[in-house]
Amino acid sequence: MEHDINKIREVISRSPADPSSLITVLQDIQREFHYLPCEALKETAKALYVPLSKVFSASTFYNAFSLTPRGENIIRVCQGTACHIRGADQLLEQLEIGLKIKAGQTTPDMKYTIEIVNCVGACAMAPVMIVNNKYHANVRCDRAMRLVKRG
Amino acid sequence: MRVDSVEKLDRLRDDYRKAIDTQKKRIAVCLGPGCLAMGSDVILKEFKKVLADKKIKDVTVESVKKTGCHGFCARGPLVVIEPEGIFYTRVKKNHVADIVEKTLINGEIISKLLYIDPQSKKQITDYREIPFYSHQQRISLRNVGQIDPDSIGDYISSGGYSAMAKALTSMTSQEVIDEVTKSGLRGRGGAGFPTGRKWETCAGVESDTRYVICNGDEGDPGAFMDRCIMEGDPHSVLEGMIICAHAIGSRQGYIYVREEYPLAVINLQTAIDAAREYGFLGENILGTGLNFDIKISRGGGAFVCGESSALMKSVAGEVGEPRAKYIRSVVKGLRDQPTVLNNVESFATVPVILNKGGEWFASVGTKKSTGTKAFSLAGKINNTGLIEVPMGVTLREIIYDIGDGIPKGRKFKAVQTGGPSGGCLPEDKLDLPVDFDTLTEAGSMMGSGGMVIMDDRTCMVEVARYFLEFLVFESCGKCVPCREGLYQLYRLCTKICEGEATEDDLESMERLSKTIQIGSLCGLGQSGPNPFISTVKYFRDEYLAHIRDKKCPGGVCRKLITYRINDKCTGCLACLDVCPVDAITGKKKEIHVINTEICDRCGACYAVCTFDAIDIE
Amino acid sequence: MNYRFVVNPSLCTGCRTCELACAFYHTKNKKPGRSRIYPIAHAPDKFVPVTCLQCDDAACARSCCFDALKRNEITGAIELNLEKCVKCRACVAACPFGCALIDEVHDEIIKCDLCGGNPACAAFCPTKALEYKKIEVKAAPARQTA
Amino acid sequence: MIDIQLNGKMVKAEEGEMLLSIIRREGIDIPALCDHEAIEPCGACRLCMVEITRKEWEGWKKHVTSCLYPAEDGLIVNTHTEQVMEIRRTILDLYLARCPNSKVIQKLAEEHGVVKTSFEKIPDADNCIMCYACTRICEVLGRSAISAVYRGHDKVIAPPFGEEPPDCIGCLSCAMICPTDVIPWQDENGVRTIWKKKFDMIACEKCGKEIITRDFADYLISSRNIPEDYFKICDDCKRIDLANKMGSIILQAEEAAL
């Protein structure tokens, strides 16, 4: 998937051109393109005077970043302790069966990606599922797919 | 609108306070994480729409505003109407018109929205009388749920920035440090290192650059106190950091916020921009010559970055791998400069310590753990939510008096505190006071304040496996005991859960745990085996049940249990539709049957059955 | 540091005793190392004993990215710290005189270190073509700069 | 100079000197797989852990990695206590599960009485013991061509995107420093291959002998200001040139003296 190089440079230029803004730049790229395209990382390495190997290490170290394109709708299932003991596993399994993909994967039609998050801080309303920044509380496992389709 | 003197600040505070007509109604809609997940933002919009149409805004209603987490998430979405403190629970969009009509205009109370105390069966109007709140004492959460986080005016009128003004204009750095030391404040992140001594050491190191860092990573699953403070009262964190900057002489501060808290980043940034505009950040603060600015550093999503040296690497734009802290970060931290790193809650508490004095703070709580601590109650408990209690309160008071016990009348089994570095304490430990040292002696740890309550439907071996799986995923992978040791510990724990382990597997796990605790480079590894060690210590019989009788008393480990439908089944087809492997057969209104060969024991049927018709052996 | 390693090629008969002495001095686990000094004939029966000139601004030390080549202030020799050396051969390629070389026997990089202040080759040279003697400081000849 | 007590014997040391170098100087042998003189200590393998205490700690003791712990006056260090040996045995046991067929690990483990791993062997395990010597040496070199990627148990050493590392100059430092020789490389008819990247070697203009790659030479020229023509011929030919040049000077001097 080609990306306009100027767009990439514009995103990178939003932060100061020094190594300490690497994480911020990667997050801006992730937000802009929903993943970290290979050429964007090469541009970042040049722009911030950081070796490409360190940029690649950071892109694979942090959970927020994905090196492969993600679906339009990101479904994040919380697996925090509270959610885990209030049925997050069953919730995740229903989604994996409903969308026929495993956690961390994207549906072939690039519409849905399931991701596991370790805790989103809404433990009082466990189990929690987030569809594109919309929080859903006390999700019963059989209602998961309906909430996803509704978006 | 630059405030460049104490007098101007005090005058501003009086103006704000005078502007509010205390007789008029003030509506506060809770937009904390829990209520937000239940759609409280829609309710706020509805209030604004209804009030705008009615054009009564100026007569009876002073303001409609959003607040941070009010605390009682289980009863969310929450609406509070001041000055009476009317506490409406589980408010829906269609209730808004009634509330405006009845309560705001006619002053009537809508009883069906009130909280009914399960013990006394009495309806309580004013939230301050509800047991959930009356047992609490809020210091770091003093403004959370009371003020609008986006309004610096709200914060100032509640007394905000007065401590900063006092520190900057009438206290020397050493006096500020002495006051914090006298208060006995210990780090709220969980390590409990005396904050006064940390500031003193850092101030004593010769350097022209020092950093103040606020640790908002809160990676512990099941903990959301920091999130609520950052989202609900961001200015208190800024004020705490400015006071610290004055104490140690720093020009630059960072707030490290985890990637999973986007709203906290937004609210903090709004607060920073407002503080800069008012001159509380930037050059020559309050005309005292202190130059100090704060930048937000967004985490990338790594639990290990809660550890201070890994966090500093992440702020410097590198991979979050901890370093051996034989040279402490107060001497050489961020970019090898002296750095003070404290937790969100610690900074939010500092202004109160300066305003009310160190002795007052030391008088709260216990001798060695002074002041109060915020906890997030979650898991199998009726009153899930955010609380703050003095140190020394017992677990029983928190779980039963405030938390109102276990739902569906099930039996309490364990309380998990301290997240993946903490442990699980059984029923006979409920009378232990909660503070830094007592829980640690009992094999768990107070930690950052996450408290997850477990009932008899939880398997403690599976909980240990869950934490080990979490740590294997979150370990940075740098040192051998943690990368390899925790992985092997996890593999062995999984073997126990699948009933294929032997007793000397258990013994080798205990031996391996010792090496991981002593050998690991950072806190993640050193405390990684704690959940396993504490569950083996208090629930050894469950481990032996898995190993010897291949049984799972909690009914969770999939390889060791079987699901059967009993005669309470009403034939509602709910479980039949949800079963992923179609192992359930039966017609509508007839008792269904689970084919135990096909069933892969995923537990979906048990989750959806509302008639308690499924037994687990 | 007022000792100098003085080479007088015209006295060199090419008998290679110095090579022998150097190799045996650097014996390691019972195997003699490769010599750091080479009497090379530039004309029939005319030899020049070629070894490291311990340059002031040594190209070998400059080329070493791992700080493994350092001057010993007492003997004046640039010594190779084998603990630090990762055998990347930068110095072998960079030395303009080819006096940093590879010892295949011990599989390591070698260069003359003046035997720590008492060069074996000078001790055994029969014709005094090689000498390690005290020189008045003011008369010390300028060093070869690379 | 400060004094520390090492296994009961009083020893002199520099302030701030790492314990491991003192221990080694005293001839005590303790394992340290991820330590190397050319790179900063990083405390990854934890094998060099020792027990430390002080008189004023009244019996309380701590275990630290000696490669990273700076010596302080009055420190009491024990390198072979039962707990320390237990840590080493367990770590080597874990290493045996991670790299079952690595000779270095097998030998070291046997020396500590661990013959077979008591844990589950890692599927398709290679001999990389994740000591990060290769990535650190490349960083000291100034190229940082390779790095440790991913996190936790699936952390591996790799070039960016698993492709040919653009910053690699083929100097082989990583392959040479690796304690278990895991990094494959080849020199074949004038071409060096490492990390799937091909490098032309510089052939000596006179005899064709190859020493380093063209990229490595260019790097030394640009960043260590070594004149370009030093790389044109090999060390053997340079010595012969030196002898001839020196010889011709002598001959002229002799003729002038006649």
Q: Tally of extended strands of chain B?
A: 20
Q: Biggest interface, and residues per chain?
A: A-B, 50 and 65 residues
Low-confidence stretches of chain B: none
Our measurement of the CA-to-CA distance between the termini of chain A, rounded to an integer number of angstroms, reads 26 Å
Number of strands of chain A: 4
Helix fraction bin of chain B: 40-55%
Could you name the CATH class of the largest domain in chain A? Alpha Beta
Strand order of the largest sheet of chain B: 9-10-8-7-11
Mean pLDDT of chain A: 91
Helical residue percent band of chain A: 40-55%
- Secondary-structure element pattern of chain A, one letter each: HHHHEHHEEEH
- Gyration radius of chain B, in Å: 26 Å
CATH level-4 homologous superfamily of the largest domain in chain B: NADH-ubiquinone oxidoreductase 51kDa subunit
Biggest sheet features of chain A: 4 strands, mixed
- What's the tally of helices of chain B? 26
**How many separate helices of chain A?**
7
The CATH homologous superfamily of the largest domain in chain A corresponds to Glutaredoxin
Total tally of structural domains of chain A: 2
The separation of the N and C termini of chain B measures: 68 Å
Can you give a write-up of this model?
The complex is a heterotetramer of chains A (151), B (617), C (146) and D (258). Chain A is α+β, with helices and mostly antiparallel strands and 151 residues long. In chain A, 44% of the residues lie in helices and 12% in strands. A four-stranded mixed β-sheet of chain A has the order 2-1-3-4, with helices on one face. The two termini of chain A are 26 Å apart. Chain B has 617 residues and is of the alpha/beta class. Chain B folds into five domains: 21-129, Glutaredoxin (3-Layer(aba) Sandwich); 152-362, Rossmann fold, CATH 3.40.50; 372-455, Roll (Ubiquitin-like (UB roll)), CATH 3.10.20; 460-549, NADH-ubiquinone oxidoreductase 51kDa subunit, iron-sulphur binding domain (de novo design (two linked rop proteins), Up-down Bundle); 562-616, Alpha-Beta Plaits, CATH 3.30.70. A five-stranded mixed β-sheet of chain B has the order 9-10-8-7-11, sandwiched between helices. Chain C is 16% helix and 24% strand. The longest helix of chain C is centred in the first third of the chain and has 9 residues, at 17-25. The mean pLDDT of chain D is 93. The chains are: A alpha+beta (151), B alpha/beta (617), C alpha+beta (146), D alpha+beta (258). Chain C binds chain D through residues 9-10, 38, 40-43, 46-48, 50, 59, 62-63, 65-68, 81, 83-90, 92-101, and chain D through 36-38, 137, 140-142, 171-173, 176-177, 202, 211-212, 216-217, 220, 224-227, 230-231, 234-240, 242-244, 246-248, 250-251, 254.
